[in-house]
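Our platform keeps sequence and structure together, in a single record for each protein. Nothing more is needed to write down the fold, since each code stands for a local backbone conformation. An entry from our holdings is shown next, in its original layout:
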Amino acid sequence: MVVDWADDQSADRLGRLLAAHDGLGHLRVRRRGSLLTIESGPADDAWPHARLRREGVHLWRLEFPAHVGRWDSTPMRSQMPALVEMLVSQFGWMLADVSGD
């Protein structure tokens, strides 16, 4: 059986992994289909920072927002904790608080 959706447990886990890092309290996780989107700002005008696409039971692919509401897939594919560590350590600027607060 192939699991190709993101469930509430996965969204909660991603939220906990992000919250374990200082300075990321402005982020939240939204779940839709096979995607977990990391966003901030008001719910009705959210700013997308990154997302994980489920590609298997334990495998996720990292994607970043591009222009005009599109997303770019990356070659980075791993288990969720490893992707979060990579996102925070190598692409931390993508998670910056853009609200100006």
The first strand starts at residue 28 and ends at 32. DSSP finds two helices and five strands in the chain. The longest helix spans residues 8-19.
